[in-house]
Amino acid sequence: MVFLKALRVVFLGLAGMTVIVAFVILQHNVWAFSLGTGAQISVFVSPSPSPTAIPWTIKDKIAQAKVLLSGVTLKVGTTDITYTEDRISPTSVSSKTLKEPEKEIALAALNTTTGDISIIKITKHGEDLILPDPSTSLGVNWQISIIPRLNGIRWNSWNTAYHVDSPEGYAIIANLYPNETNKIVAAKVKSKKVYTVQQTINYVFYAPYSPDLHTAELINEGQKYVNDTVAKALAELQASGTGSVAMPSSSVYDVWKDKGEFFTRIPMLEQSDLTEFMLDPAGTTERIYAIIGANGDQAFANTCNSSSACGWVQFTPGTYNQVVRSYPSAHLIKDFVTGAADHINSIKAAILLYDSNLKGLIKSNGQKVLQDSRLEEYLAASYNGSPNRATRSLTASILSSVVDWIDALTSKKGGLASETRGYLVKLRYLQEHSS
CA 175 to CA 197: how far, in whole Å? Predict the structure, then answer.
């Protein structure tokens, strides 16, 4: 492979560390890089948006794929297979151990010239992708690979990035993924207690991101969808007449109606990985828009992290339930799982949480905070981390005349956590590049 160009990128360590990452850009939009570990990692980077095919759209074909996949059944094993993947952060590379039973996954492959769709069953066996025998796939010798993300993730459940290596001219536009849940069930057999594993399978239909879906059509569709969803959420809060706790004489709608951009940025902030954002902020932002454009109201709906934060704006159960109780007239969905997955409902909850956190900012800093140009930063920091940490950092910056309030206190002294500092790095980029 011919080297085209070399580039150095410096990560400013958010926890006080600095890591230099050396890159070499290779052919075919692949980057290889090393983080001083001696091992080289190759990753695909987000391409520039490509034009949409005519006369059909990708959205049309995704809808068609959903119909074709609706009757498909898939096999799932019962024994977990353990494997590892690298995880790359701005300051380190670590190995993550994963386990999952062998399972079939159904893929919808679009012929980008003719618009025809082929359904292919692959098998995930640990970290390995097993392709169908040509004799079982109409004689077609499918060669499909997984594109690793910049943060090291390869297998990513129903949002795994696939690439059709052969035959040429195909793109994976959708998949049907069997998401299994296992629980141990006790039963009495001949007066003895016997424990068995009960498996429940939920089929998830999703259009997984890949460079093939990084199109102007889907990016624009995603941007429009986010803007429309925030507008609908604000309209519903207006119709409900929900009062603001931050400004008791006003409604929530009146307080936030002119700050809709605060909430259009939350899905971008919550669904972007910091490593990927630092390396390719524009491509990472477009990636999220493309996922939303392709999946609409199902985008990130089933996504939960290790802290049980769920949905496209990543609510935790405790915080969500607190918002539900604090604003009864908003008529939020009471069930957490359903409420976090519903896009309009979860954006309404995010607006209300900003309103609740604004009350604390006004109490500690007075009404002048409403005219502060960094108000969105204070609220975003409170949303991502802790309102108390945000307030302490802001107060310390005022007392010490610190230019950048983020640096007023260290995390150990009650200031912003490193994750929140990274969150604000992303926010500042999005503010600067908002259209």
Answer: 27
Segment 254-288, tens digit of pLDDT: 999 999 999 999 999 999 999 999 999 999 999 99
For residues 78 and 275, what is the distance between their CA atoms, to the nearest angstrom? Answer: 34
Mean pLDDT of 360-389: 95
Instruction: Give the domain ranges of the chain.
Output: 5-44, 58-210, 215-432
The full DSSP string for 14-80 is: TTS-EEEEEEEEETTTEEEEE-SSS--EEEE-PPPPBPPPSSS-HHHHHHHHHHHHTT----EEEEE
Paired strand residues for 123: 104, 130
Report the distance separating Cα 39 and Cα 47, nearest Å.
25
Averaged confidence pLDDT in the chain: 88
- Rounded to an integer, what distance in angstroms lies between the CA atom of residue 106 and that of residue 101? 16
Query: Burial letters for 66-105: b for 16+ Cβ neighbours within 10 Å, e otherwise?
Result: eeebeeeebebbeeebeeebbebbbbebeeeeeebbbbbb
User: What is the C-alpha to C-alpha distance for residues 91 and 36, in angstroms, rounded to an integer?
Assistant: 11
Q: Rounded to the nearest 5 degrees, what angle is found at the Cα of 117, between the Cα atoms of 111 and 120? A: 105
d(CA 384, CA 315): 10
- Per DSSP, the chain holds a count of helices (H) and strands (E) of 13, 12
DSSP labels, 312-323: TTTB-HHHHHHH
Question: And the tokens for 422?
Answer: 């990274």
pLDDT score of 4 more than 50 = no
Q: Is 20 exposed, middle or buried (0-12, 13-18, 19+ CB in 10 A)?
A: exposed
- 118 CB-contact burial (10 Å; exposed 0-12 / middle 13-18 / buried 19+): middle
Distance CA 203, CA 302 (A): 11
User: How far, in Å, CA of 392 to CA of 405, rounded?
Assistant: 10
Q: Which CATH class is domain 215-432?
A: mainly alpha
30 vs 116: CA distance, rounded Å? 28
> Is residue 381 within 8 Å of residue 353, measured between CB atoms?
no
